[in-house]
Structures are given as structure tokens and as C-alpha cells.
Amino acid sequence: MSKGRFRVRAGVRDWLIAVGVAAALLVTGLSGQHSATRIGLLGYVLLAVGGLALAAGRRAPVAVLAVTGLCAVGYQAAGFDVAAVAFLFAVYAAMRAGHRVVTVAVSVAVLASLPLAALASGLHDTGEAFAQARGALQIAWLIAAGAAGEALRQAEQRADEAERTREETARRRADEERLHIARELHDSLTHQISVIKVQSEAAVHVARKRGEPVPEALLAIREAGREASRELRATLEALRDDDTTPPHGLDHIPELVERAGKTGVRAALTIQGRPHDVPAAVGRTLYRIVQEALTNIARHADATTASVRIDYRPDSVALQVDDNGKATPDAAPAPGMGLLGMRERVTVLGGRLRAAPRDEGGFTVQAELPVERAS
After folding, report:
1. Of 77, 252, 304, 332, which sits 20 to 30 A from 357 (CA to CA)?
2. CB of 79 within 8 A of CB of 43?
3. Rounded distance between C-alpha atoms, residue 77 and residue 209, angstroms
């Protein structure tokens, strides 16, 4: 949104400059008391067009450079001794956009054409024509406009490079910290959880082999060990995900839905719209949302069916995961870390997330993520 507001302000500013320059050129032309002949009217039109063309300088700097140059030569040939102010603005814009070679070539062509245009007007002899051309477009002003545009272009490039460097440094530090946390978790927890899991499995096996009843506490310890091991693997996988070569995305969601069927929940996947390429971060986030939603359904929802719907839209991708579990609006489950993680991922990408019980029963997770598509 902020970028959109900036574009509007820039467009208004461009038009104000264009109208101001056109008005200044017309006022200067009118002060010369030209006759209302066809040539005179053409000169006024060229003065106005040369100024108003600057409104498009940000979008088409080379085209504006050519138009303002032709207008300057044209109204000089029509007998209007008016400085080519619009062309100076166009030189500045073209240099700022990085079109240095084209700008220099067009400037040389205009400088060479102005004396001929002044001579063609019939109001000056050869000497006066060259003198008039030098007065209309002084080389010093031309160089100054080009130098100012080039200086600003280089300053913007340096600022962009500095910003990219800061972002890359911050991203690299975050990746290093994430990997450090993953190593610490692996070193400190994996061994202990493995010991608990192996010992509990062995105790249950020995008890059953001897025909003895297995204590409920021991079964709970075994199941907790298994669950902790799965959770730790998932956490380490997420921490080691460097967001540049994601192992999972939209293409892997069918595997999640198929895997959910093995937990006793009949899950179905529906894809709407025309599938198109999405940024890796968007695909990865949608995958994580489906993964977390199906995991919560299997653990807590007491559901028998679940549906996953992906809707491809022109500028976004929408996701909805529903179940027929026991959640109701009057007895909404307390949000856990999984839902918080979903919301954080969606918010970072500028999307929206809704996770709440449905009026007819069950739980729904709805997410919509914007997609920037190349035109």
C-alpha cells in the first residue's frame, strides 16, 4: 500500500512539473508576439507538447528525450527563440534512468540541429542562427543536467546495494542462529529422548513377553517418547530450512493428504482455479499450514473426515482446511504454538489467516497469500 501511495504522489509531481514547464514555455513564446499563422500555431503546439511530454519521463525517458528534442528543434524552426528547458529536464531523467549513450547521442544531434533550425526560420543569418542556438541551449546547462541525473542514479544504486547488503547480512545471521539452535537441540535432546524411547519400548516388550500386564504409565511414557521424537525431527527440519532451497511446497501437499488417511482421518484434496507458479516462500508456507492443520486434526479434533481446498486466483492463492471434529464456537480450543506459527508465517508474507470453529461444528483454517506475478 505504501508503494502505491508513493506512485500516486510521484505521478502527480511529474504532471505538476510538466504543466509548469509547458506554461513557462508558452508564456515565453507569447512574449515574442508571433502572428497567428499556421507556422505560429504549430510553434505554440510544439512548446506545449514539449513541456507536457515530461509527465511520461519516469516511464519512458528515452521516448520523452526524443520528443522534447524534436519539439525544441521544431519551435526553433518556427521562429520561437525559446530556451529548450523541457529538453534539459528530459536529459536529466534519461541520465538518471541509466541511458547514458542514448542521451549523449540525442544531445549531440539536437545541438547540431538547433543552428540549422534557427537558420531555417528565416529570421536570422548564419552567424545569428548559431549565436541564437547557443543562447537557446547552452552546453553548460546540458552538461549540468546530465551530470545531475547521473549523480543521482549512482547514489540510488549505492543506496540499493547497501540495503541489499544489510538484508543479506541479517538473513545470513538468522540462518546461522537457526542452525546453531538446531545443533543445540539435536545434541542436548536427541540422545535423551532416544534413551527414553528405547527403554520404554524394551520394558513394554519384556512385560508382554512375560505375560505380565503393562502399566498404563509405561505405555504413556512410550507414546510420549515416540511423539517427542517425531516433534523433535519436525522442529529440526523446520530450523534447518534455509528458505532458499525449500524441500516442500504446493506439489507436496497431496502427500500430506494421503498420509493423513493413515491416521484414521479420511482426507480429500480439491484444487480450484488454474494452477500457476507461486514464489517458493508462499508454497512453503501453504505446505506448513496444511501440515500443521492435518496434524492438529489427527491429534485433537476427534474427526473422521477432513478436506483441503487450494484455490488459485490471479493475484493470490487461498487455502482452506476443514474437519468434522468436536470443536464448536461455544467450546473453542485454546490456540497453541502451531496456530501461532501459522499466523506468523502468513503475516510475514502479507497474507491473512483465520482459524476458528465452524458454526456447523468442526474447525476451519483459512489462509490467503498474495502472489506477485510477472506481467
Report:
1. 252
2. yes
3. 109
